[in-house]
Automatic annotation (TrEMBL):
<comment type="similarity">
    <text>Belongs to the peptidase S9C family.</text>
</comment>
<dbReference type="Pfam" id="PF00326">
    <property type="entry name" value="Peptidase_S9"/>
</dbReference>
<keyword id="KW-0378">Hydrolase</keyword>
<dbReference type="GO" id="GO:0004252">
    <property type="term" value="F:serine-type endopeptidase activity"/>
</dbReference>
<dbReference type="InterPro" id="IPR001375">
    <property type="entry name" value="Peptidase_S9_cat"/>
</dbReference>
<keyword id="KW-0720">Serine protease</keyword>
<dbReference type="InterPro" id="IPR011659">
    <property type="entry name" value="WD40"/>
</dbReference>
<dbReference type="InterPro" id="IPR029058">
    <property type="entry name" value="AB_hydrolase_fold"/>
</dbReference>
<dbReference type="InterPro" id="IPR011042">
    <property type="entry name" value="6-blade_b-propeller_TolB-like"/>
</dbReference>
<feature type="domain" description="Peptidase S9 prolyl oligopeptidase catalytic">
    <location>
        <begin position="508"/>
        <end position="691"/>
    </location>
</feature>
<keyword id="KW-0645">Protease</keyword>
<dbReference type="GO" id="GO:0006508">
    <property type="term" value="P:proteolysis"/>
</dbReference>
<dbReference type="Pfam" id="PF07676">
    <property type="entry name" value="PD40"/>
</dbReference>
<protein>
    <recommendedName>
        <fullName>Dipeptidyl-peptidase V</fullName>
    </recommendedName>
</protein>
């Protein structure tokens, strides 16, 4: 394969050897940043990972803190700012994971992390705001390990997670199990109260993905011995990410716009902690922000004890907001006692021809006692397909007009357009910011042959405006070009102008090989709010495939694409749409790649790890007799297909079981045209999951 690409630049071997940059964290005083560098792919040998450290206001200051001999991950600054805590398998490489601490004062003398010695393997952890404790989850050990040869009784998919919640004390150096929790349930997430005396955690029936679509209970418990948990509410399905418990007395989290919906835009939900026990999907004191026309997809707590307001009445979070193909990060400020101005929104950062790498960002608010001024720092992994810039860590420091220690930013009515009709208190200050590029990872991408990347918009027949990304060889002059329709997965994902080829993203790879590559944001995608995302509930093929095919028609109309040389490809839901399109059009596309895609939606509901989600996408329930009147799966219409179809699948895929690939291949071999039969090929990768 590399011979096609001359073995250099954007080619399979370079992609396979590349790294990803993630898990960005800012120090409490905002002066330093840590992050993680991980091999994108690893063979049968154990996973390794490096932790890097950078100075916020010094360009190209990133340097290794650990050297990649072990799996060092999930690094965070201690609240006092003097050390870094992280998970590692240093004692038993590839096996048990303990917590380690590095004193930043010792970094110049070499990395000598101290093991905390918890005595059990750590899954997830979070430091208390006062820095005195660490809450962590761990797999409980059993004196009677099950015999792998024993039969297993299947009870609605439940496999007890055996996770327990512990608290480690820095003072005593010992851990204590949190009593009273019903450990027959799966601990989905946990977070600290602002004073560090309580934990807030969510429980669901099982750890498997299907239980994220069922009721989730939220409880609080004191870390004092013999304390009993208190149930404060429930959700109709799992929120996205963890809750944040703020000094202002609010609990915030991300849920779907209508919390019961499996397919919908994400929005920010705000609850008062004094709300009586209720369903947190809907409460009398609930506020929903974002989600109407753009989507809130990630939140972080911006405040750190000792560096923010001492009055204990305020809280501040940062929100990542997807707006079509752009992203902006807002600070949302909450106040406990001011009922008229409950919150204010402060825009911090907006992408400009670039993209944030899958949640790899952080934001922090701090007060400098020496200057009596406050500051905000945003740090993010950014890449740009438009400028051919590979993913690297950038910092943005904002210094002016953001309030003082005891008077954070106050809301003001903007003179311009209000972006969210349910947010009356938007705040548009005049901010001064300085931006630094801190790292130089993935330089091979910078040196590779450039790819031309641009964003286009067009209208479909019903008047809906769509967006998509077009990539092509930078040297292309002879249009129209052979064209590949490359479809994103999800469906609740989106295509953005990033620059990072990887195992299920062949856009840049194909563009450097001479193809025009088009990637539409079809209805059901992220970034356009509730109505746009909820359209996916009408079922696969109702809007998504017609939207994808409309982009093909648009680039043909513009004279960019050769209508006689078309291909289609995608991974996960992109693979499902590829199978859908190929079996619907029969011969419009000369070639197709179905990567980990579904071909039989009844089978997906019966066998997939996420049956409720697959039912929502396919709009087909195998136990509903009425549904059998609709043949809406690709396997039902493979007859007459002449497109050459390459099917790729992992044999350990739980999200889309490998039988979906085998069924499509068998159908093509039996019902396609002779050309389609000869062109059908199935490749199954041993040991590989969904992605």
């Amino acid at each position: 394969m590399d011979s096609i690409f001359n073995g250099k630049g954007i080619c399979p071997s370079n992609i396979a050897a590349t790294q990803k940059v993630r898990n960005v964290k800012i120090s409490p005083n905002t002066k330093q940043i840590i992050y993680q560098v991980v091999p994108f792919y690893k063979g049968p040998e154990r996973m390794t990972s490096e932790i890097w450290l950078a100075d916020t206001d010094v360009a190209e200051s990133a340097r290794r803190l650990t050297h990649g001999l072990f799996n060092d991950r999930s690094a965070v600054f201690h609240p006092d700012g003097n050390s870094v805590i992280f998970v590692s398998d240093r004692q038993q490489p590839g096996k048990a994971k303990d917590l380690y601490q590095i004193l930043l004062s010792d970094v110049e003398d070499g990395c000598n992390p101290r093991i905390l010695g918890l005595g059990r393997s750590v899954q997830e952890f979070e430091l208390s705001p006062d820095g005195q404790h660490i809450a962590y989850s761990s797999v409980r050990t059993s004196s009677a390990e099950p015999d792998p040869c024993d039969a297993k009784v299947y009870r609605d998919g439940i496999q007890n997670s055996s996770l327990s919640l512990w608290v480690y004390s820095f003072d005593t150096g010992r851990s204590r199990l949190i009593d009273g929790i019903d450990y027959t349930y799966h601990i989905e997430s946990f977070t600290w109260s602002p004073d560090g005396f309580e934990l807030l955690y969510r429980l669901r029936k099982g750890k498997e993905a299907e239980f994220s679509e069922r009721e989730v209970t939220i409880q609080r418990v004191s870390i004092a011995p013999e304390s009993l948990p208190v149930t404060i509410g429930s959700y109709p399905r799992s929120p996205s990410g963890s809750n944040i418990w703020l000094d202002s007395g609010h609990i915030v989290e991300l849920q779907n716009y209508e919390p019961r919906n499996s397919l919908d835009a994400r929005a920010l939900f705000v609850h008062n902690i004094s709300t009586p026990r209720s369903r947190l999907g809907r409460t009398k004191r609930l506020k929903r922000l974002y989600g109407d026309f753009e989507d809130a997809v990630r939140i972080v707590d911006m405040q750190t004890k000792g560096y923010t307001s001492e009055n204990g009445e305020s809280g501040m979070i940062a929100v990542e907001v997807c707006s079509d193909v752009d992203t902006h990060i807002d600070a949302v400020y909450f106040h406990r006692n001011d009922s008229h101005h409950l919150f204010a929104v402060l825009p911090l950062f907006r992408t400009q021809g670039e993209a944030i790498w899958f949640g790899a960002w952080d934001a922090k608010y701090a007060f400098d006692s020496a200057t009596s001024k406050s500051t905000i720092v945003v740090a993010a992994v950014l890449s740009s397909g438009i400028r051919n810039e590979p993913p690297n860590v950038w910092s943005i420091r904002i210094n002016e007009n953001i309030g003082t220690r005891d008077s954070p930013p106050r809301p003001a009515i903007p003179s311009g357009d209000i972006r969210w009709h349910d947010v009356p208190n938007l705040y548009y200050p005049s901010l001064s910011s300085v931006r630094y590029k801190l790292s130089s990872h993935l330089d091979w991408l910078k040196r590779a042959e450039s790819v031309r990347t641009e964003v286009i918009h067009w209208l479909v027949d019903d008047g809906t405006k769509l967006s998509g990304i077009v990539r092509s060889p930078s040297s292309a002059v002879n249009y129209p070009l052979p064209t590949v329709l490359f479809i994103h997965g999800g469906p609740y994902r989106r295509d953005i102008p990033d620059y990072m080829p990887y195992f299920c993203n062949w856009r840049e790879l194909l563009a450097t090989a001479g193809y025009l590559v088009i990637s539409p944001n079809y209805r059901g995608s992220q970034g356009r709010g509730h109505a746009f995302a909820y359209a996916a509930n009408q079922g696969i093929g109702a809007h998504d495939w017609p939207d994808c095919e409309s982009m093909v028609d648009e680039v043909i109309r513009r004279g960019w694409a050769d209508p006689t040389r078309l291909a289609v490809a995608g991974w996960s839901h992109g693979g499902s749409l590829t199978a859908w399109g190929v079996t619907l059009t029969k011969n419009r596309f000369k070639a197709a790649v179905v990567g980990a895609g579904a071909s039989n939606w009844e089978g997906m509901v019966m066998e997939s790890g996420s049956p409720e989600l697959e039912k929502a996408i396919g709009q087909r329930d195998p136990w509903d007799c009425e549904a059998h009147r609709r043949n809406i799966s690709p396997v039902h219409r493979v007859d007459g297909v002449s497109t050459a179809v390459l099917i790729l699948h992992g044999d350990k895929d739980e999200r889309v079981p490998v039988g979906q690939a085998i069924g499509l291949y068998r159908g093509l071999q039996r019902k396609a045209t002779e050309t389609g039969k000869r062109g059908a090929e199935l490749v199954i990768y041993p040991r590989e999951p969904h992605g």
